[in-house]
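Example record

The entry below shows one chain as it appears in the dataset: sequence first, then structure tokens.
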Amino acid sequence: MSEQVRPAPAPEKVRRSLAFYKVMSIIAGTAVLILVVVMVIRYGFGNEGPSKAWSPIHGWLYMVYAASVINLGFLLRWPLGRMVLTMLAGALPVVPWYLERRVVREVEGSLAGSLEP
């Protein structure tokens, strides 16, 4: 039985997916920092209002971030473990920003290498 080789994804498709991931990484990192502040307000000062409003918004934003990771990961054929770890990074304050820079450098380097004659 012969093994099929999938063609490499189009560079433009990778760039669009990477741009979506970049935006969602920044949003997810900011959202989790806001969540930390909201949790301090809730548990430190007994005010549930901000938590009731922000927690569902944060949940939806995180799911969109996870979708951006899945989109980019499948496109670039990342192993499942890498996709899961990248998604989990979105649950920690500041980590999505750091990881976003690493992923962008790696992907842009790959794109530059694949476009050289």
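Notes for this example: The longest helix spans residues 11-45. The chain has a mean pLDDT of 90.
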